[in-house]
Amino acid sequence: ITVGGCASLPGTTTVTVSAAPATPTASNTGPYCAGATITLATPTVTGATYSWTGPGAYSSAVQNPTRPSATTAMAGTYSVTVTIGSCVSAAGTTTVVVNALPATPAASNTGPYCAGATISLSTPNVGGATYSWTGPASFTSTLRTPTRPASTTAMAGTYSVTITNAAGCTSLPGTTTVVVNPIPATPTAGSNSPVCTGSTILLTSNTVTGATYSWTGPATFTSAVEDPSRPSATTAMAGTYSVTVTVAGCTSLAGTTAVTVSGSVTPTNTITASPSGSICSGTAVTFTAASGGGGTTPTYQWQVNGSNVGTGGVTFMSSTLVNGDLVTCVMTSSSSCATSSTATSNTITMAVTTSVTPTVSIAIGSGTNPTCSGVSVMFTATSTNGGSSPSYQWQINGANAGTSVATFTSSTLNNGDVVTCILTSNAVCASPLTVTSTGITMVVNPTPATPTITVSGSDLISSSATGNQWYLNGVLITGATSQNYTFTANGTYTVVVTIAGCSSTASAPMVITTTGITDAANPYLLSIYPNPNDGNFNVSFNVADKGTYKLELINSLGQLIFREELKDFSGMYHKQLSVVEFGKGVYTITLTSDKNDVVKKIIVY
Q1: Are 407 and 367 in contact (CB under 8 A)?
Q2: pLDDT tens digit string along 229-265?
Q3: Thinking of the domain 447-517, which architecture would CATH place it in?
C-alpha cells in the first residue's frame, strides 16, 4: 500500500477455487391423493449435505424426506441442492401432484322394509367414478344402486358406500341405516260358530301390541276392529272369515275361521253295541253314540234300566250286564239352534248267556294199571260242557298222541308215563275253552322172556327159575308151577312164565311120546296153548302117517275163521294164530284126516 508517496512491501494470499457439485436428480412417488404421505428422493452424494424446499414453506435436510397428510396446497415443485464443502450445487426439481378426495357420497335406501321385501340402496352418480358398498351379513356390491331381495331382520343395519374417481382416490364412506321389520305372526281367528239365523256372529282375534286389524268375509264384510260382530246373521253370511294384523307397516298372513249359519236343528241320537247280539256273561261290550244336532260340545248320559251309568262320553263299556238289561243314552245338545235340548237313543236289550266251565276226566276203559309192556291199554275221556262236538287231544308226558276222539289206545307205554287229555269245548259261552284232565301215571311191568324147555329123563325143565305154569295139550296142569315138571303122560307140554302179573308167551312145545300111555281121543296130540288166552295162541300137532290133514277154526257163530289143508304131510306142525280182531268168545278148532277127527275148544277172554 502507499502512504505519503511511500509504498509498503507486498503482502500475499493463496486462493483455491473448487468445482460446484453436480445438480442432484429429484423425484417423488406421486401422484398422491389428499391425506396420503408425499415421499421425496434424490441419489446419494458422498460427503454431501442436502437441502429440500417446496410449497407451503417446506424445507428438509434429509436426503429422502416424507411429508404426511398431503393436501392440495402441498402440490407443486420441490427443489433439492447438495453441498460439498462450501460449494452448493444447482437445484434439482420434481413436481408433486396431490389430487383432492372425491366428496363423501350421499347413501340412501327406500325403507323401512318388511321382512321378505327387496332392499334398494342408492348414491348419486359421479362421472367416471366406481362404487363400493358394504353392509350387514357380509353384503358387498360395486353397483351404484344395488338391491338385496328377500330381506330378513339380519339384513338390517348400517350400509356404507365409497366412490373412487379417475385419479384413483377414494372418498370417505357415506352411510345409510336400513330398517327391516319382522312380519307379524299369523293371528288366531275364532268365532262363536255355529250360529242360528237371526243371531249375532262374534269374531275374535288375539291381541297384538301396536297392531291394526283388517277383517274380510262373505257378503263383502270388512272391519278394522280386533273383535268385530255381525248382527242378524243370514245363511249368506256363512263361510270363511279372514283377519290380518299390521305392525310398523308390515302385514301378517291371514288367520281364518269358518262360520256356519244354521236354521233350527232337531237333535238325534242312535247307539250301537260291539259285539252285538247275544253275548256270554262277563263279556265287555262297548256302546257308541252317533248323534246329530248336538252342537260343538254335546254331552251324553248313559243309562242301564233307567239308572245313570258311565262317565258322560260318547262311549260306554260294561262287562257286568245281565240278560234283559236295557241300555239307552240321553244326548244333551249344546246347539243354540236345537229344537229340543235332549235326544234319547234307541234301546238295546241285552241277551246274555251264562258262562259254563268245561271239565274232563279220564279213566282206563280196557286194560289195567299196573299193566305189562306191549299190552294195549285203552283210555276213555268223560267231559262236561264240551258242547255238541268237543275235540280231544291226548298227551303222553305232555307230547301230543292219539286222535281227537274221546278214546285213546296204546301198547307202547313205558313205566312212569303220564297220560292226560285236553278238552276243547265248542259249547256256547264255555270259559275257558280248553281244560286238561288229571293225569294217570302208568306202572308198566316188563313182560318176561319166552321160556325154553329142556328134557332130563322124565323131567321137563323151564329156563326160568320162577313164575312157571306148565300146560299139557294147552290145558293148565294144576299145581305145576315149579321150574321142573315130571311128566307122566304123552302129549304136548308148554310152559308160561308170569312175573308181577305179566306173562310171557308160551314156550315152544315139547312133545312127549315115550310114556307108553296113549290118548285115544287125541291121536295126533293136537295142542292149543295158552288156553284160555287173549286171542293170541299156538297150535301144534304131531302125525306119524303121511297123509292129507285139514285144520279149521270156527267161532261161536259158526263162521270159519281159519282153514289150512296139508297134503302128503307127516311130522311136527306148529303155527301162531290170532283172533283178536274177531273178539272174545269160545272158538272150536278141528284137525281132520281120513282116519280121525280131533276137536278142541279155545276160550278167548
Answers
A1: no
A2: 999 999 999 999 999 999 999 999 999 999 999 888 8
A3: Sandwich (2.60)
Classified as helix, coil or strand, 237 is helix
Give the Cα separation of 479 and 328 in Å (integer): 87
In angstroms, rounded to a whole number, what is the distance separating the alpha carbons of residues 475 and 477?
6
DSSP-H helix ranges across 337-457:
none
Give 519's pLDDT tier (boundaries 50, 70, 90): very low
Q: What residue has cell string 267231559?
A: 383
Span 159-217, pLDDT tens digits: 999 999 999 999 999 999 999 999 999 999 999 988 888 899 999 999 999 999 999 99
Interval 341-394: pLDDT, tens: 999 999 999 999 998 999 999 999 999 999 999 899 999 999 999 999 999 999
- CA 96, chain centre distance (Å): 85
Nearest to 540 by CA among 593, 583, 503, 577: 577
The answer to whether residues 342 and 332 touch, using CB atoms and an 8 Å cutoff, is yes
Q: How many CA atoms lie within 13 A of 249 on its CB side?
A: 9
Dist. CA 502–CA 494, nearest whole Å = 17
Q: Domain 520-605: state its class.
A: mainly beta
Q: Which of 361, 362, 441, 365 is nearest to 396 (CA)?
A: 441
Phi/psi region, residue 237 (left: phi>0; alpha: psi -120 to 50; beta: rest), is alpha
Q: What are the residues whose beta carbons fall under 8 Å from the beta carbon of 61, sequence distance 6 or more?
A: 49, 50, 51, 52
* Secondary structure of 143-174 as H, E, C letters: CCCCEECCCCHHHCEEEEEEEECCCCCECCCE
CB of 250 closer than 8 Å to CB of 183: yes
CATH assignment of 359-444?
Answer: 2.60.40.10
- Report how far apart, in Å, the C-alpha atoms of 223 and of each of 212, 228, 379, 592 are: 11, 7, 92, 129
DSSP state of 515: S
Per the CB < 8 A criterion, the answer to whether 241 and 189 are in contact is yes
Give the integer Cα–Cα distance in Å for 215 and 257: 11
- Cell 304136548 belongs to which residue? 492
Q: Considering the entire predicted model, what is its pTM?
A: 0.43
Length of the chain: 605
Check pLDDT > 60 for residue 514.
no
Residue 138's pLDDT is: 96
- Paired strand residues for 602: 587
- In this prediction, residues 91-98 reach a mean pLDDT of 97
Query: Could you tell me the fold of the domain covering 108-181?
Result: Immunoglobulin-like (2.60.40)
How far, in Å, CA of 397 to CA of 442, rounded?
A: 11
Residue 83: pLDDT over 90: yes
What average pLDDT does range 407-435 have in this prediction?
94
Closest CA to 169 of 70, 100, 72: 100
Q: For residue 347, give the amino acid letter.
A: T
Query: Are 133 and 119 in contact, with CB atoms under 8 Å apart?
Result: no
Right CATH for 189-262 from 1.20.1250.20, 1.20.1290.10, 2.30.30.100, 2.60.40.10: 2.60.40.10
pLDDT digits (tens, 9 = 90+) for 289-320: 999 988 888 999 999 999 999 877 999 999 99
